[in-house]
Amino acid sequence: MNTASAPYPIGTSGVPWGDVERAEWLSRQNRQRSYESEVLSAIERLRSRFDLEEYGCLDYGPDYYPLMAIRSRDWNDDLPVVLVTGGVHGYETSGVHGALQFVDQHAADYAGRVNLLVAPCVSPWAYERIHRWNPNAIDPNRSFHEGSPAEESAALMRLVAPVRDRALIHVDLHETTDTDETDFRPALAARDGKPFEPAGIPDGFYVVDDSENPQPDFQQALIKAVEQVTHIAPADDSGEIFGSPVVAQGVIEYPLTQWGLCAGITRAPYRTTTEVYPDSSRVTPEQCNAAQAAAVCAAIDYALAHQ
Predict the structure, then answer these.
(1) What is the pLDDT of residue 1?
(2) What is the spatial distance between Cα 159 and Cα 122, in angstroms, rounded to a whole number?
């Protein structure tokens, strides 16, 4: 376990990584699960009900990953567009499988009311290695901007470009895990040559609103739906989650577009990042997936009622 008193095993403290350190980090990453058998097979089973689209591919030789999106079969340009993304951080399992569960179990409820565009696993290389970054040690969820260095992010932006200005909703499905504190945040600090500052992990579900266009009632609709499935994260002793003030139960705010976050890639008036907490003893993987699906349903229900 990496802690503030145990330096990260790659690199020199206080010195940003170069090519040698990135190569050493990459050499330590091992495939732990299969994108093909766990994700692509699940997407393929939806083919009889939805249109499937390969919107790009990742060539991380010798590994090759088709990037797949799911669309409403009867796409109608007169209907509002709902974008759902998962697996931007590949290790965040319920983001991927929650998106797939929403499509499989709930999408039919919205047929003829919205156009659905779902990219369930934006970062398949990281999905297989249960990691936050791509093989170049780049975080795709800080890379949604022009000239993106992350092909995962660039490919998704190309997919979304035709609906960017007319999307009604974007729900980006994530998790906050204990390994954020024990592995991924220490790795980030080491990569950037900065000290690791422990922050603690919020115990429960929360959402991230857009500080540049907050929609508090919309976010609360998601919280109310999800608290029927899993518990909501409380604020810490400082009234914060990860250093951001809790503005309402289970809600914090980030400048989504400014920070290059996935939830900021459209001009949708209703945007959110969900954060499930899968490491709690109070939840199961099934509950985590159900919480993500419930959040998407609540988002659509709210937006359609308030157009």
Answers:
(1) 32
(2) 11
pLDDT single digits (tens) 94-106: 999 999 999 999 9
Q: Please determine, for residue 47, whether its predicted confidence score (pLDDT) is greater than 80.
A: yes
Sign, CA dihedral 302-93-2-29, equals negative
Q: Residue 2: what pLDDT? A: 35
Half-sphere exposure of 136 (CA within 13 A, CB side): 14
Q: Which two tokens stand for residue 155?
A: 């490919």
3-state class percentages of the chain: helix first, strand second, coil last, to nearest 5: 35, 20, 45
Nearest to 124 by CA among 78, 168, 63: 63
Residues forming a β-bridge with 288: none
CATH number for the domain formed by residue range(s) 19-305: 3.40.630.10
* Mean pLDDT value of segment 113-138: 98
Cα–Cα dist 294/289, whole Å: 9
* Residue ranges of domains in the chain: 19-305
Beta bridge partners of residue 86, listed in sequence order: 173
- Alpha helices of the chain — where are they, by DSSP H? 19-27, 35, 41-44, 93-105, 124-129, 151-160, 178-179, 185-192, 216-226, 285-305
pTM: 0.97
How is the beta sheet containing 206-210 ordered, strand by strand?
A: 51-60, 63-71, 115-119, 81-86, 167-175, 270-276, 206-210, 251-254
Is the predicted pLDDT of residue 209 greater than 90, yes or no?
A: yes
